[in-house]
Amino acid sequence: MKRKTLKNILSGFIAALFILAITISSLEYFTSYKTSKSIHQDAPVITRKSILIDAPVATVWKIFRDVDHWDNWQEEIVTPKINGPFQAGTSFNWKSNGLTITSNLQTVETNKTVAWCGPTFGSFAVHTWRFSEQNGQTTIRVEENMEGWLVTLLKGKFQSSLDKSIENWLKYLKIEAEKQSAHQRS
């Protein structure tokens, strides 16, 4: 009797795992996302952050556009690789917070704007970065949205993770740009 009950429980568990795997595979296969040059205002997760950097925009831009070396100054990024010139239409691969991501540049205006978007498991993100300079200092304004079935399920987790991630991006970029700017002045 115990053996039959255990067998039924195990069979039910395996069936549930199979159904879950089919559901996740279907969600990944049939979900489509809209690429965009600006964030999706109706997305479940949106972050907006800004920072003032004591460095000229040309210095900040030079660091930012060098995707292959993001991991030199951005601790959360691993193995970034751009697949062509830093211009609209070019893709790049990177890992951030354990996620493997392929992003596509949508907009690139030198020293002004960058927008990219891309999917990863259960999610899709649109990033926009705006750069402006005044009196030798650069202000960066970042907006990012995330959407997708996994983002909807874990909205709070994704929101807090995205907020922290963008804060770190800006903090690390500020440190690197100010260090390089100080070195250029000396």
Molecular structure report:
The protein has 2 domains: 1-30; 34-185, Alpha-D-Glucose-1,6-Bisphosphate, Chain A, domain 4. Helices cover 42% and strands 34% of the residues. It is elongated, with a radius of gyration of 21 Å. The chain contains 5 helices and 7 strands. The chain has 186 residues and is an alpha+beta fold. A 7-stranded antiparallel β-sheet has the order 1-7-6-5-4-3-2. Helix 2 (57-65) crosses helix 5 (155-185).
SSE map:
Layout: H1 2-30, E1 45-53, H2 57-65, H3 70-73, E2 77-82, E3 91-96, E4 99-109, E5 113-120, E6 123-134, E7 137-147, H4 149-153, H5 155-185
Antiparallel strand pairs: 1-7, 2-3, 3-4, 4-5, 5-6, 6-7
Helix pairs in contact: 2-5
Q: What descriptive keywords fit this protein?
A:
alpha+beta, Alpha-D-Glucose-1,6-Bisphosphate, Chain A, domain 4, 2 domains, 7-stranded antiparallel sheet, 5 helices, 7 strands
